User: What shape does this take?
Amino acid sequence: MGRFSNTLRIFFDNNTTLAYYYGMTEQNNYTIKQLSKRLNVSDRTILRELSRGKMKSVRVGRKHLISENELDRYLHRESSNINNKVECYFRENSGEMIDLLHQLVSLPSVGYKTNQEEQLARFIVKKLEEKNIRSVLLKEGDAIAIRASYGWAEEGVVIDCPLDTAPVGDIDKWDYPPFGGIVEAGKMYGRGTADCKAGIVAAIYTLLALKKYVDEEKVRVELVFDGGEQDGSYKGMKMVIQRGLHASSGVIGYAGDEFDFAIGCRGYHRYTFKILGRSAHTGSRYNVGVNAIENMAKFISEMKKTKLDTSKLKHFPFGQKMTFSLIEGGREINIVPDECTARLDFRTTPDYSKDYVDRLIKTTIKNIKSKDKKFQIEWKYDLGNEGYVVDEKEKIVKSLGASIKQVYKKSPAIVANGPSHIGTLLAKEGVPTVVWGPRGGNVHSYNEYVKINSIPKTSLIYLNSILDYFDLC
Assistant: This one.
């Protein structure tokens, strides 16, 4: 139970909070001064509610007396209305939300091009300032991130969405202009709609609703929109963490095409391998050289023969994965290649770490050398993070899961993601992080889209989860 578990809070338009303690007895009658002291608000707040007719009193001489029954009626009426208020707020602002998403999609922010990320970041900060949201643009070298916040509680919830997107690819394979933000049949198409600009919009309007309806002293929500997500460097979020992130739980706003609620993901470990050979003319009768590409092919083939260990974690039935995704070598068609480079992307489940991958590589090299004494290979670890899974009993899992069910009238499937994400970095910092965002699909592919009616629903889910997380409902 939280420290406010026996308290019912009501929020007014001017961010004044009334906190009603259930320990009041039915026989109690309160003067204005007694009630203001008990509820930790000013006398003026009580008088204002009486003058508006929202609360009724009985005059005894010069005093107003408010009965326990009247107070109970008043507080429960306001409590039941707050969900209706925020739902109406998101519905009324849905057109504005779609317009903002269209503007974000029109600004390319392809990963590996930091000038594009910065252009998008400056546009978002300007929008936040226009809406009087506290925000700051952080930049160190090629690391970039936006921070925005509401609330002064000691610890809070961070909602994270990346600024950078996947490349467009072959533009002729798009049915819609990738930066056009075309809306058709309830879907907006464009690069970054689902990953993750719709999530950025949902997060911003969640903060706006909190600002309008919730007492700032009782919550703390931080928005982080960061660069460097696509290449796995996570430079933006690392910069934020170094400066101090006051978060006890996290949510990532990736869109999904399945009704899945992710509470973890695989880790990723990336390596570079280099084999040196000896060049020669491909037609030489005696000097045959040493073919670096053929030796790299031998190494890759031996690595792929390895049967990867199976995860024992229930959310990772898809297991681990090894992918040699880049290979480069050779200079001309008539020259035996004397150098070949390959890169490995290895996805590990949380019960296996980088050490497991290192052992596999070392064992494979040892086995090849036992048969070919001349085989030489250099390798280095590039970057990565371990996988993680959040306990289903964590409050963020319960709060968000219940809110999803409340809005969509069905429970999501609790899963883990195959791809890695910022959650691996936050988990390392002790911040349990889950994934839920608007509904969309074709992420990293052609005709990426998001269902526009899911954006205000996502904001409502976030807000309800935050209220529950901070024991405010």
